[in-house]
Structures are given as C-alpha cells and as structure tokens.
Amino acid sequence: MNRIHMLKEFSKCNVQDYYKVLSYKFYSTKTAIEVVEEDASKEITKQYERLSKITIKTRKKSPQKPPFAKNLFLGVFDTDVLAYPQLEKEELQDLEKAIEPVSNYFNSISSSFLKQPFVPIDFMNNLKQLELFGLRSSQLLNGRELDVIGNCKFNEVIANATSATPSLLHNEHLGIQILLNNGNEDQQKKYLPQLINGSVLSAFCVAENDAKDLSLLNTTAKYSQEHNAWILNGRKTAVINGSIADLYIVIALTSIIGKSGLREPQLTVLLVDKNCGGITFNKKHTLGLEATDVADVTFDNIIVPTENVIGIPKGGDSVVSSILTEYRLSSGPACTTLIRKMINNLVDHCKGVNMGTISIAEADYVRQAIAEMTISLYALESVTYLTAGLLDFYENQDCLLESTIVKVFSAEEACKSAIKCMDLLGSPAYMKEHWCNILFRDALSYRHLHESSENLKLGIALLGMQHTGQSIQGQITKIRNPLFHAKYIFKRMWTHRKQGVDNPDLKLRLGDYVHPSLQEPAECLEYTVLRLQYATEILLARFGPEIVNQHMELGKLAECVIDIYAMAACLARASRSYCIGLENANYEMVIAATYCTHAKLRVKEKIKNLVEGPYASGYESYRSIAKRVFKYGQYFPVHPLSRNY
C-alpha cells in the first residue's frame, strides 16, 4: 500500500507541473529561455510517461519455511519442493515480452565479440538503452524491479556475451544489490540513479593474494578523529572492473577481537570514489574473460568519509552475507548459457562431419557425450530455477546453502561439458581462437575466480553439519559416550540395523508426490537422503568438533548433497512438465530418471567410503603421503630406474 500511495502522489505531482508548463505563456523572445522551458516540458512529459508504465507487483509470498537443503542432512525432506515453482500465465507473458528485445540484441552479437580485449563502448550504450542495469531495482528509480526468477531469465540472455558476463554480474549483484539492501537513504540517492542508468560502473574489492582467511586481510581501515573519516590502505587483487570502475566497494579489516585464542575479523564495507585520489591499478591478463576488465587495485592513504560506510562500522559480515545468496545463484544462468552454446555448436559441427559413409552424429561415443551434456544442462536449469522459486515464493527464505550448491554445480558442469566438447573436436579445439577453447576458458572463471569450488564445497558441508549438530546434539553426545548411555546405544543398533547393511527402510514415500512413472527415480532420491542422514551422524559421532578439520570427508559429503539437491530438482521439474503436457515432456522424464540413477550410484559409493572410515577409504593414506612430500619439500620417490646395490 505504501508503494501505491507513493506512486499516486508522485504521479499526481508531476501531472500538475506538466499542465503548469503547458498553460504558461511565453512572452519573452529570448531563445535561451524558450529552450529551457521546452526542455523542462519534455522532461516532465518523459517522467509522466515513465510513471504511467510502472506496474504494481501483486504476488504475495508464503510464510518462511525451514531450510530445505540443510534439513537433508537430518533426513528431513520437504515434499512441497517436489511441486516445481511456476509463474502465473500473465507473469510469464509479461516476462517474455520484456525480454524479447534483449534476446534479439544478444542473438545478433557476432562471435567475434567473445575475442574483444575490452567491452566495446557501443555495447555498454546498448545495455543502457535496453535498461539492463539495476534489474532488481525499483521502477521509481528506473529499474525493472524483477523478481529472482525474472532476474535469472534476464541473466541467461545477457550471458550470451560470455566473456563480458562477469563484469555485468559483479556490477549488478556486488554493486547495485549491496546499496539496495544495505545502503542508507543518502547513499542510495547519491549513487543508485547513476548505477542504474549505466553512467557509473562499480567494482567489488575483497580478494587478496596472501589472505586465505578474512582475519588475514592486509587491507585495513583505521578511524581518524582528526579527519572524522576512515584511512584506507591496502591492495586488492583480481578485481572485476578494477581499472574501469567509477565506484569501489571495498572490504577492509578494522579490528580483531580475540575470543578463547580465536582470531575474529571485524570488517567494514566502504564506498570509495575513483576521483578521490590515491588509487592505482594494474591490469591483469586472465586465462579467459577477454571482454572483462580484471585488475589489481591499490589504495594508498585514502580518506573515506564516515558517511561512505555501508551498514555500520565493523558490521561488514552482515553486509556481505546479505548479497551472497543471489550472487552465487547468478552463476547458474550464466553457466546454463555456456553449456547450451557448447551443445548447439557441437551438434552443428557433428552434422557436417562424416565417418566413412555415416555421420559421426550416429556414433555411440558422440551420442554419449551429447547425452551427458544435455543431462547436465537439464539438471543445472532445474536447480537454478528451483532455488529462484524458493526465494521468490517464500518470505525471507534461507537459501544460502542452495545457492552455494548452484554455484559449485554450475561451475563444475560447465567445465566438464567443455572438456567433453574438446575431446570430440580434437586438435582444432586446442587452438586459442576456437569457439570451444574460448568457452572453456570462460567456464574456468566460475570455478576458480574469487570463490573456488573446493572451498565452497567445504562451506556446503560445514553449513549442513552446523545445522545438524544444533538439532541432534543430544544424540551425538550419547553415541560418543556409549558406556553412559547403553540403553540408547542398543536401541539405536536395532533401529539402524538396515542402515548398517546399506538397505534403509524407505519411509518418506516421495513417490507419492511425483508422477507415478517416476516412482523408481523417487526411490533413488529417498535412498540417498536417508544415507546422507546416516553418514552425517556417523561423522559427527566419529570426529566431534574436529569434523571441521576433516576436509576430505567434508568434500565428499558436500558432493553427495549437491547430487541429492539436483535429483530433487530434476524430478520435480520433469513431473510438472509431464503432468501439464509440455513439449518433449516424455524425454524430460527419461533425463530425470537417468540423472537419478547415476547420481544414486555416485552417492552410494561416497557414503560407503565415509561410513567405513578414513583407513578403509584411503583418506588416511592420502594424509600420510602428503605429510611425507612436505617433509622432503618435493616429490620423494626415487626414479624408477634407480638401484641401491
């Protein structure tokens, strides 16, 4: 209601001004005055036309639900997720209408754009005209005010400019979104209009070469009472838009408080204008992303006014966490477009190549690669829009774990698909200018730049472990102290006897919530959920608080939950498609069933290794070998031709 009232008042005010200008009699013959009045009239007319196009968002969100992915570690499955999210017919039509001119433009971009060493000026101007900055911003600020699903769909189209995509995503999610979610009124008035109209570009500065932990950041901000400002010093590496940005959003260490010997960083997020002086940058040459600017940025005694602190001083953690979910989710649409390009280009190539008298498109090894890439793309689309739906349809939904899964899954599947593509193409794909080589290098950025997949996997597992530990702390205490809780231990041995032989009772009945044809894949999903719960309890009981240091086990556990989440998304999507009769829905059922079958086998093997322990699985051998290498400081086995007699 507040938005509607504000809109009416704003519109009313401008209409009155408009008629005042029209009724004014221009008696003066001075040219300058006539130009000013005509410009004012045009501006008011333009504002009125803009306001008349504003649409009111009417969708109501449902109350917040328990976190879906985190509850998988507890063996709890929210069956509402199997009703795949969908837009109302009018919403879908409006979205398709809005995205049509954008899609037409990006489809017209030549492939040579991918090889540009910078973002062309005319490209950025076209983005401004298409209103592709501030997609989630209010319409009153000239933004599109998209929901998360709509934003993902737009990002899919924008990602056709693959080499420039990170530049646009970082500006949107790590620049505009931070100000929208955390900026005060003055900051939003000062910077948002320029960011949304595209006249100002932002850069998010967090990474440092030597800092693997936030408490080890070398970039510091110290408060100066003399200047009533923060003095910023430090160097940030691999900053997207680093040398072309007009506004830097910098994460700086302000102090460290020790608790029980732990180093706890206190971070502050600062807005730094490029024209304030003391900023230097060094452009970097990356493996891919030819059209994205990447640079190291150095801040030397920058005086940052107190009003340029985003959020509160020493409250940077909450500022960063507020944008992580949607930022990580943005990798999904970007990698979706990458894989789709690979598949479509590879199919075109295979149609024109013969192996003897037949096309290589009929060869089994080609069909296998194409099918695997298709299944990967289907699963990636499914998890992306399932996560977007959870954010859109539920109030303040906790989807940090789901969005992190999307980022890891999208990066890994894009790289795997690119390698399969290169394997089929052979030597030509090894050439730097080949389209597959370009897409492969662009895909690598999502896996390694800023947030590596291996680190994110640990984060996935630890988030799940933390949630589980808080819920079943009492049970874990009893399992770790069997002599004091003998009755509970004997009862558990009986209730978990089937888990001990890898044959859990399937009591969740997930098959009741999807199309009957998907009964068997639903049982695969249920099996993996129950086995994940069992493995989580085993690891917590075995290692206790030390589980945070068991990175090998945590990595495998994360891979399991990634597969399980993708299985759920594929089943939900395929079931919906088949039930409402979408084109090729019968093949969607095949894709979903195939993914679930293979994912079950992967999860089964990993859980088996986790349950058997570090010695049976070989993890302890890995640790022993690595210790030996570090002891010698190099590869230690002697040459295979060596003799000792």
UniProtKB/TrEMBL annotation:
Pfam families documented for this protein: ACAD9-ACADV_C, Acyl-CoA_dh_1, Acyl-CoA_dh_M, Acyl-CoA_dh_N
Subcellular location: Mitochondrion
Any Gene Ontology CC annotation: mitochondrion
GO molecular function: acyl-CoA dehydrogenase activity; flavin adenine dinucleotide binding
Acyl-CoA oxidase/dehydrogenase middle domain sequence ranges: 204-301
Domain ACAD9/ACADV-like C-terminal per the UniProt entry, residue ranges: 516-634
Domain Acyl-CoA dehydrogenase/oxidase N-terminal: start-end pairs: 119-198
Cofactor(s) required, per the database record: FAD
GO biological process, one term: fatty acid metabolic process
InterPro entries (alphabetical): ACAD9/ACADV-like_C, Acyl-CoA_Oxase/DH_mid-dom, Acyl-CoA_Oxase/DH_mid-dom_sf, AcylCo_DH-like_C, AcylCo_DH/oxidase_C, AcylCoA_DH/ox_N, AcylCoA_DH/ox_N_sf, AcylCoA_DH/oxidase_NM_dom_sf
Keyword flag Transmembrane helix: no
Tree of life domain: Eukaryota
SUPFAM superfamilies: Acyl-CoA dehydrogenase C-terminal domain-like, Acyl-CoA dehydrogenase NM domain-like
Domain spans labelled Acyl-CoA dehydrogenase/oxidase C-terminal: 316-449
Alphabetic keyword roster: FAD, Flavoprotein, Mitochondrion, Oxidoreductase, Transit peptide
Homology family: Belongs to the acyl-CoA dehydrogenase family.
Name this polypeptide is given: Acyl-CoA dehydrogenase family member 9, mitochondrial
